[in-house]
């Protein structure tokens, strides 16, 4: 994808971090976000502290600058219902007693907080955390907030901008595609649990796929918003900051 941008989780961990732990998860469900770094020979693993991560292959997610040519019809439809996911996710979190926590997040949970300009995060290391609004199953928690993990942004020799969440048991990796003046589109997939040795590519395992919008919401602050994710919630937000 040579035309792409060349300029530039759960109960154990939350308890350990002082958060209220949710009910035990369904054993068939994906793992919640505990700190489990991947290690893989086929897909470049996250770098150890102080090391530079190996770049991924050029054009690794479809060889096109148009995300619409890569994503499935179902994922494109989910992205088209982004406003509904914001509305229902926030309402459910607030109705379930988390209104104060949601309000405290400020611009992170403001659907209109995306800013024009400097959309591409510079390559390098970032702090990142996940917030989930609403539930995608009856009786699920309406709000989940995780501690800080690590993310990276890489610019490949071919001009691909790659976002990777490198720690936690729900990790993600994919490309940031150009879209509008105030957002990019993320297309990627998740790795789950400590037994995962790499990241599936988008489309290989549809239940792992993630498609969302990537926005700048402040100085050195960005968010990836995934509507209708396959697990846990109605809306998933990954915040990145330096």
Describe this structure in words.
- By secondary structure, the protein is an alpha+beta fold.
- It has one domain.
- The protein contains 3 helices and 9 strands.
- The protein is globular.
Summed up, what is this model?
This protein is an alpha+beta fold. The protein is built from 3 helices and 9 strands. The protein has an 8-stranded antiparallel beta barrel with strand order 1-3-4-5-6-7-8-9.
Q: What is the arithmetic mean of pLDDT?
A: 80
Tell me the overall shape: globular
Total beta strand runs: 9
Which spans have pLDDT < 50 for at least 5 consecutive residues? Answer: 1-28, 35-59
- Structure classification: alpha+beta
Please count the helical segments: 3
How are strands sequenced across the largest beta sheet? 1-3-4-5-6-7-8-9
* Strand/helix succession: HHHEEEEEEEEE
Total domains, how many?
1
Report the end-to-end length measured between terminal Cα atoms.
Answer: 27 Å
- The residue fraction in helices comes out at 10-25%
Largest sheet: 8 strands, antiparallel, barrel
Task: Please describe the structure with a list of short key phrases separated by commas or semicolons.
single chain, 242 residues, alpha+beta, 8-stranded antiparallel β-barrel, 3 helices, 29% strand, globular, disordered N terminus
Secondary structure layout:
Blueprint: H1 11-16, H2 73-80, H3 82-104, E1 124-133, E2 143-145, E3 149-155, E4 161-165, E5 170-180, E6 183-192, E7 209-218, E8 221-227, E9 235-241
């Amino acid at each position: 994808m040579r035309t792409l941008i060349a300029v530039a989780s759960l109960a154990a961990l939350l308890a350990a971090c002082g958060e209220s732990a949710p009910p035990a998860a369904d054993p068939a469900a994906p793992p919640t976000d505990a700190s489990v770094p991947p290690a893989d020979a086929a897909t470049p693993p996250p770098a150890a502290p102080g090391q530079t991560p190996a770049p991924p292959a050029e054009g690794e997610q479809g060889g096109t600058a148009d995300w619409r040519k890569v994503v499935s019809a179902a994922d494109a439809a989910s992205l088209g219902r982004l406003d509904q996911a914001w509305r229902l996710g926030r309402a459910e979190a607030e109705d379930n007693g988390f209104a104060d926590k949601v309000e405290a997040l400020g611009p992170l949970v403001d659907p209109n907080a995306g800013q024009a300009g400097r959309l591409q995060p510079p390559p390098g290391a970032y702090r990142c955390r996940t917030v989930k609004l609403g539930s995608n199953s009856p009786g699920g928690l309406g709000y989940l907030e995780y501690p800080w993990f690590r993310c990276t942004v890489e610019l490949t020799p071919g001009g691909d901008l790659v976002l990777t969440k490198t720690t936690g048991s729900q990790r993600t990796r994919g490309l940031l595609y150009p879209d509008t003046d105030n957002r990019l589109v993320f297309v990627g997939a998740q790795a789950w649990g400590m037994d995962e040795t790499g990241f599936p590519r988008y489309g290989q395992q549809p239940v792992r796929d993630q498609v969302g919008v990537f926005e700048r919401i402040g100085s050195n602050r960005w968010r990836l918003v995934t509507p209708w994710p396959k697990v846990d919630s109605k809306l998933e937000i990954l915040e990145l900051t330096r």
